[in-house]
């Protein structure tokens, strides 16, 4: 009998508690703008924070209550999604130019041999506190993959051969999460050109050329040949390190061909810079041969 009484009492308490919760939920219910849910459906849901908000829901709430979308853009959503969001909230769209991350380092296992061992946690942030890490270069990639772990879109992976992260331009949304977690700040966001074409200096070493070259075979030595070769004034050299301004770059790739250490990389082009140079050289020789034949003069080697 005591068991039945206990069950009845507990059941009564449960029903009373449920009734109280129901009344309280109805009494203090706050109606949410239905546009918030519509906006949130268009967002990637990664909560990467690249928009400057705490997450996708916070971004959706801000869009629904904002008077303008000028400072509100989600890199991961894309241009079409931002246009739809603008239609939902009845404001002019804020379309940001798509960006892609690039790694400003090519210190592969071959180019930059190990000079020390590390037996701590597999974290770039932790390894960075030791100084130059496992190599003599204090500016290059540490290779623990913190950037890969931070990417919410599966756009990065570690190459077991080079020991460097690889960025997939098709998957990269330009959210900047990888750039924020890199303790050496060697991941940069650059404007995404059609077909993913891009040219950048794959080095961050600011030491003098001779020192940088000893530390890595692919280091920028600050010689300035790329700057002289650029016809668009897009290349500058500061603190022994070249930099290509992507807002001025016309993708002619003359800097790529001029670099003596191959520190300037290009990607996304149907023809590589080396092949382009070979084609130009072949055409030059053909033109000289044709001219020599017409004038009955032996062509130069």
TrEMBL record:
Q: Which GO BP terms apply?
A: electron transport chain
Broad class of the protein's primary localization: membrane
Residue numbers binding [4Fe-4S] cluster 2: 137, 141, 144, 147, 182
This protein's UniProt keywords? 4Fe-4S, Cell membrane, Electron transport, Iron, Iron-sulfur, Membrane, Metal-binding, Repeat, Translocase, Transmembrane, Transmembrane helix, Transport
Q: Which cofactor does it need?
A: [4Fe-4S] cluster
InterPro entries of this UniProt entry? Answer: 4Fe-4S_dom (IPR007202), 4Fe4S_Fe-S-bd (IPR017896), 4Fe4S_Fe_S_CS (IPR017900), 4Fe4S_Ferredoxin_RnfB (IPR050395), Elect_transpt_cplx_RnfB/RsxB (IPR010207)
Uppermost EC category: translocase
Q: Which residues bind [4Fe-4S] cluster 3?
A: 151, 172, 175, 178
Residues binding [4Fe-4S] cluster 1: 48, 51, 56, 74
Highest taxon of the lineage: Bacteria
Name the segments for region: Hydrophobic.
1-25
Q: Which GO terms describe its cellular component?
A: plasma membrane
Query: Pfam families under this entry?
Result: Fer4_7
Residue ranges spanning the membrane: these are 6-25
Could you state a single Gene Ontology molecular function term? 4 iron, 4 sulfur cluster binding
Provide the E.C. number(s) assigned to this enzyme: 7.-.-.-
List each copy of the 4Fe-4S ferredoxin-type domain by range: 131-161, 163-192, 209-240, 242-269
Co-factor: note? Binds 3 [4Fe-4S] clusters.
What does the subunit section of this Swiss-Prot or TrEMBL entry state? The complex is composed of six subunits: RnfA, RnfB, RnfC, RnfD, RnfE and RnfG.
The record's PANTHER family line, in alphabetical order, gives: ION-TRANSLOCATING OXIDOREDUCTASE COMPLEX SUBUNIT B
HAMAP family xrefs: RsxB_RnfB
| Annotated family | Belongs to the 4Fe4S bacterial-type ferredoxin family. RnfB subfamily.
Q: What does this protein do?
A: Part of a membrane-bound complex that couples electron transfer with translocation of ions across the membrane.
Name by which UniProt lists this protein: Ion-translocating oxidoreductase complex subunit B
Q: Which organism is it from?
A: Muribaculum intestinale
Q: What is the lineage of its organism?
A: Bacteria, Pseudomonadati, Bacteroidota, Bacteroidia, Bacteroidales
